[in-house]
Amino acid sequence: MTEAKTETNGARRDCVVFVTHIWTSEVAEHYARLKREAGTVLDVFLAYQHNEGELGTPAPVQADFVVRMTDSARHFPLRYQEFLQHPTPRGYVDLVWITAFLDPRLAAYDRFWLVEYDVDFSGDWADFFRPAAGYEGDLLTTRIHPLSAEPSYYFAPIYRQPAHAIADPLIVFMPISRLSRRLLEHYCGMLLQPGWHGHFEMLLPSMARADGFSIAEIGGHDTQTPRERWGHHYDGSHLDMHTMGTTHAYRPPRGFRYFVRAPQQFRQRNRIYHPIKVGLSLRRRLHMRYLPQLKKLRAFSRWLRGKA
User: Fold this and answer.
1) What gap in Å lies between CA 81 and CA 69, rounded to an integer?
2) Which tens digits make up the pLDDT trace of 281-299?
3) How far is CA 220 from CA 193, 236, 237, 239, in A?
4) pLDDT mean over 23-44
5) 280, 291 contact by CB (below 8 A)
6) Residue 89 phi/psi, 5° resolution?
7) How far apart are CA 99 and CA 77, in angstroms?
8) Are 119 and 274 in contact (CB under 8 A)?
9) Does the predicted model carry a pTM greater than 0.90?
10) In sequence order, what are the beta bridge partners of 141?
């Protein structure tokens, strides 16, 4: 391992862990750019999720960490059993990146950036991480808002919390986020006990707030964004998460090619883009792009049938 890079004051050592469960030439180029550019500011590592049924890691992948669900099950048996009880794994990918963060080779680092494979930046990654290194927060993330601001949150029905938790749980959006080691260790300890259950983007921030950890917004226009970062790195708020009104949303896709291959398709510069969905057929691309409109049309159709 190279000597860990530090902030200018030498107080903290940060690293980036790029997490992916797919590996193609596109993803490889995307990661190589991240490592080349962000690597001038902090250390960058590759964590590959080994999918069930794979005979081995794809030959071209030179991952720093290969994470198997058996590894996660050993670390977090209660959360793994909860994962097995739900038909969708989307709310439990924390099992993958936490397992990577716990690797002894990362023991020197005080803060961990999570960057998922479908996150991109329309500029030099160093221009994002250089200022972000000075942002405070045990959990530095995006789209922070209470459940009362989004009572129809899709994963709310599976959420459970202990009695001491806050009355109005928090929801965040974590494709690109940073955790302090202090919060990471606390989160790991809580997952070994009964009491906290549900989607990690609701569970982790609610636990952090209940147990006294600091939470901060990276940028954008959400209500908890610091004034000095208003509109930085991405725009819009959590209300835009299912629209084309921001580059950083849940859906529809922001694009189907990475910046490294098609910078001309990224209309706004120096912005976080999510999700970038590579390797999809044209039919699937069209379906995902227009899914919100299709849902609205279906809802309108149901309303018309009810009026008939």
Assistant:
1) 11
2) 445 444 445 555 555 555 5
3) 35, 6, 6, 12
4) 97
5) no
6) -85, 0
7) 12
8) yes
9) no
10) 217
